[in-house]
Amino acid sequence: MNIVVPIKFVPDPVEDLQIDPSSGLLDRSFLRLIPSELDEHALEQALILKERHGGTVTVVACDTGDVDETLFTALARGADRAVKITGDDFQQGIGSRRMAAIIHAAISGEPCDLVLTGTQALDDMDGFVGALLAERMGVPYIGYVTKVEIAGNKAAVRKEYPGGLNAEIETALPAVLGIQAAEKPPRYVVTAKVMEAMKSRRIDEKPGEDPGEPFTFPDLRMALPEPARRAEMLDGSPAQVAQKIVALLRERGLVG
Amino acid sequence: MSEATSYEFLEKVIAATPDGAYIRKCLQCGTCSGICPYGFAMDYPPRALIAALRADDFHGVLESDTIWLCVSCFACASVCPMKIPLTRGLLATLKAEMLVGGSIPAELQTALSNSRRYGNALGESPRKRADWARDFTVPVPVMAGRKDPVEMLWFVGDYGSYHPRVQLVSKALAKLMHAMGMSFGILGPEENSDGDTQAFAGEWGLFELLARKNIRAMSRYQFREVITGDPHAFNAMKHEYPRLGFDKRVRHYAQVFAERIDILRPLLKNPLPLRVTYHDPCYLGRANDNGVYEEPRLLLRAIPGVELVEMDHNRVMSICCGGGGGGMWLDGFTWEKAHARTTEWRVREAVECGAQVLAVACPYETPRFEDAVKSTGNEGRLIVRDIAELLAESAFGREDVQ
């Protein structure tokens, strides 16, 4: 069982997100980029399957953010190989279609029975990359997956639908699965093991090949949410506040 | 799960501290387990843990998760008749072994992951570390780019920088240092978590990463010594940083202020007619025999009107607030396992000794004890204040502290 896990970097909402007035888009110059949370779940599920069935886990990520640390952490967690896709200006972000094309080019030589990726990334919420990658590979795709069981060259997966509905679906392998949640939360790996991986393991680099993607959608404009009208805080003693509430309710005709 | 044998683990414990081999001299008297605040809820309190190792049952130890109740308060180590370094050696090493094996409560994992990614356990933006000090009524200079020396490099710490309740303590400290004519500066965004609590939670690699970042940041500036309001930073810089190349003196503000009491005392103009009791933070007093017991009391007595009363458990017998050794990030786990909070015992003890104010000197304690005041129904009967807040209230008046 050879599993490939593509990891995407997304803006960290811990930092204030700002719009660049000149472009009207997200100001990416000082953004902190972190691995998308659902991709971390995809990696965890891959490691669980490897522990159960043997095989290898290969993580693939574009050269941006703290990619080296993320890939070494993945190796320390139990991945066998880490591939960094270099060359493009990934800090500026690339759309889902180009992302799928670039990942496909990077993994086309890899032995691969299964691709696990986050069912969507927490920046664009597109949820396209897994499906587009499957299309390019000519294999099935199932998204919103919360459980994966492997039997021979087939996988039985649980897919979540809105409204609490679940489906059990069987698919032939190879396949691409969009992971909604791993069986367990992503594991913690101690810092000493990450440091050890940085010394003893290596990251393979592959130049990003962009085979051209005619259907790209330029972003036109982004905007921060308009602040809602501020709540009015009523000060004073409990009795005074109660009087103010009564006055407000009267004023708005809610009580007589 | 870790695959270490009892023997291999014991070797690690012995190597962890200079006196590690004392573990071989354990009498099995059980004093450690008796004084442990959460020993009653542990599968393996320290005595039973050593017995299990002697019986070659390390596997059984690793199957239990109740080591995560250990709050690294040094109570066990302080009473051990054979002077076994239980807290720093045995217990912190067991936590490290648990982490290597991947056995970690989720809430602790969040705090450790945050510490690694952001340099603070709260998961806040490192860039905003000095935001509390911006536009404050007294200048709090950030060292970045500063060439001229300061007397005091003020290590503010995670909670003093980010926690809204503890920021009030930082502001009180800033006003006091300013009024006392001390020259000081903070590291701001260059400061990282001191790493002490991460270390005692078993993440020694993370501790080293954080400590090295702080040491590198401090090496860029000229200062005489480090001052901090955080006993954990104080303990780590005093006992753990030197082996990583740190050679500066570090003191808690209580020590520095007590030394300058002649400058401080004339500032304390407003009487605070209050009965005050003082909670000794583990890492200022008992841990590593740090022994800072009298300076905080001297400061409290210097405030006109304050009557200092003692709780039954004081100085080396102080009861931990439950925040050390990772406990700060394990409140849910601890409640689930033990159905007890040391903070509540402590608050009841403070009320029983007749205090109106529970004075503290550690950033973990104001929020933890204020929660306990509420959960024990003592609101209106007891208030919690850092010593710095009481000093500032006496010096600048109640309204003017912030």
Structure notes:
The complex is a heterodimer of chains A (256) and B (402). With 256 residues, chain A is α/β, with parallel strands linked by helices. Chain A has helices at 37-53, 67-77, 96-107, 129-137, 191-200, 238-251, and strands at residues 2-7, 9-11, 19-20, 25-26, 33-35, 56-62, 81-86, 114-118, 141-151, 154-160, 166-172, 175-179, 204-207. Helices cover 29% and strands 27% of the residues of chain A. In chain A, helix 2 links the parallel strand 6 and strand 7 (81-86). The longest helix of chain A is centred in the first third of the chain and has 17 residues, at 37-53. Chain B has 402 residues and is an alpha/beta fold. Chain B has a four-stranded parallel beta sheet with strand order 2-1-3-4. In chain B, helix 12 links the parallel strand 3 and strand 4. The relative contact order of chain B is 0.12.
